[in-house]
Design a protein that fits this description.
By secondary structure, the protein is of the alpha/beta class. It has helices at about 1-5, 5-25, 50, 85-95, 120-125, 125-145, 165-175, 185-205, 220-225, 230-235, 275-280, 335-345, 385-400, 425-434; strands at about 30-35, 60-70, 75-80, 100-105, 150, 210-215, 235-240, 290-295, 300-305, 330-335, 355, 365-370, 380-385, 405-410. Bound molecules: 2-acetamido-2-deoxy-beta-D-glucopyranose. 2-acetamido-2-deoxy-beta-D-glucopyranose (NAG) binds near residues 275, 278, 279 and 282.
Length: about 425
């Protein structure tokens, strides 16, 4: 009756309902990246499939990393995928999860052990290379039972900026912070070709009833390589690279907070979550905000502190000495590794131990440090994400109407609950805030 007598009310109710459904359907998404090499029994810290399963209660997407590209024929090649029918088995237990395969992700390395970017550009340049790739994607997805493909495309990265200091400030004023065009002279063409690839893939992928997502990698300029409105039209969602702004590989001499939420004084103004999100929002139609996800890590970035790095630990730390060897990989500490270091109580007051420095402003992130001793040894500085800071970022995503969070990576969270007795504490704290 209501609907026939008062059509406007009916219409209003319908559209409110539609809006509500879109919102509840599209936000609060948890995209869980999953580094499959860590499943291998010979990896430094192996994880079993059974240990992975509790995480899936909190994930909407499980993204397997990573597949690469064959340089001869430009077909996709998957490495390190668990064998057998396990995706279909997982799907039966966790019917709400969609399973995607990610290609690139800086894991597709060349003979020198560095991420191969040339191959990713050559693929774009020839329509027949693109069509080889597309055909191989569909057959690879079908072969393993994936629901979609994620393009973590290995575009050339911006060069690290000059070191901190007077020189940098002067240079910053004269040249601007943003002059980064030299990474690829054909960037404009590659941008167009990548948009074309996404359009072509979208057609194939949707015909096959599957999904297409885009994952930005840290220090890849969207301005140079991504046609944002087109990418958002074709992708089901986009994961932004809002982490690893400062890393011991790129900035071996200066330790600093790797993923501040907001701009920090005298830092590159683009090196924070808020800037990256705003950059994309500026080029995005309002209805597409919920296609954007921010990246949050479960690991920290660690440097060696030298005697010249001072004793306060207050970032930026000068005269650092590259990636700290502590942990299962140089320059990276997983959350359980950091937690363990923080819990180690010194046996006496003289023994240096890691001190945590929190962030009451909730803007920049937490760090922990141990100044170098008199011999110049044992110095360590780590900037990281803990359950509290990760929750702050989830709240930020929610407040801006974004789609959710892309979590890098399940295997670096506290898989076994050895820190505080709870498994996947960072993943949980993000999910509860979304
Ligand atoms: C977004 O647009 C506003 C208004 O045009 C501008 O002031 C701001 O600098 C832009 N932000 C980014 C990150 O591009």
């Amino acid at each position: 009756m209501l609907f026939t007598k008062k059509p406007y009310v009916g219409l209003l109710l319908c559209s409110l309902l539609a809006i509500f459904q879109t919102i509840s359907g599209e936000v609060g998404k948890m995209v869980c990246f999953y580094d499959t090499p860590r499943l291998a029994p010979n990896s430094p810290a192996p994880i079993t499939l059974a240990e992975l399963e509790p995480a899936l209660n909190f994930c909407n997407f499980l993204v397997y990393g990573y597949a690469g590209i064959d340089p001869e024929n430009f077909k996709i090649i998957s490495f390190d995928l668990p064998s057998g029918n396990h995706i279909n088995d997982l799907r039966k237990k966790f019917p709400h999860v969609r399973f995607l395969l990610s290609v690139g992700g800086d894991r597709d390395i060349n003979g020198e052990g560095v991420p191969d970017t040339g191959k990713y550009l050559s693929l774009l340049e020839q329509p027949e290379h693109r069509s080889n790739f597309r055909a191989s994607v569909i057959s690879e997805l079908n072969k393993f039972g994936f629901d979609g493909i994620d393009l973590a495309w290995q575009f050339p990265k911006n060069k690290p900026k000059l070191q901190q200091g007077i020189l940098k400030r002067a240079w910053g004023k004269f040249r601007g912070w943003f002059s980064s065009t030299s990474v690829d002279e054909k960037a404009a063409e590659h941008k167009e070709q990548f948009a074309a690839l996404m359009g072509e893939l979208r057609t194939d992928i949707h015909r096959a009833g599957k999904m297409l997502s885009l994952t930005m990698l840290p220090h890849v300029s969207a301005e140079l390589f991504i046609d944002i409105p087109v990418a958002l039209m074709y992708a089901d969602f986009v994961n932004l690279a809002t982490y690893d702004f400062q890393t011991p590989e790129r900035d071996p001499k200066v330790a600093d907070l790797p993923a501040p939420l907001q701009a920090m004084y005298e830092r590159d103004p683009s090196h924070n979550v808020q800037y990256q999100v705003q950059y994309w929002l500026n080029a995005t139609a309002e209805r597409d905000f919920n296609k954007l996800h921010i990246g949050v890590t479960s690991y920290g970035r660690s440097w060696v502190m030298t005697r010249n790095s001072g004793i306060t630990g207050y970032p930026p730390i000068p005269e650092a000495d590259g990636p700290a060897p502590a942990g299962s990989a140089a320059g990276i500490l997983s959350w359980p590794e950091i937690c363990e270091l923080l819990q180690q109580q010194p046996t006496d007051r003289e023994t240096p131990h890691l001190r945590k420095v929190g962030d009451p402003t909730k803007r920049y992130g937490v760090y922990a440090y141990r100044a170098a001793d008199d011999k110049g040894e044992n110095g360590l500085w780590v900037g990281y994400e803990d359950p509290t800071t990760a929750a702050n970022k989830a709240a930020f995503a929610r407040a801006h109407g974004l789609g959710g969070v892309a979590f890098h990576d399940l295997t670096m969270d506290d898989v076994r609950g050895q820190c505080a007795g709870e498994k996947y504490p960072i993943l949980r704290s993000i999910k509860y805030k979304l």
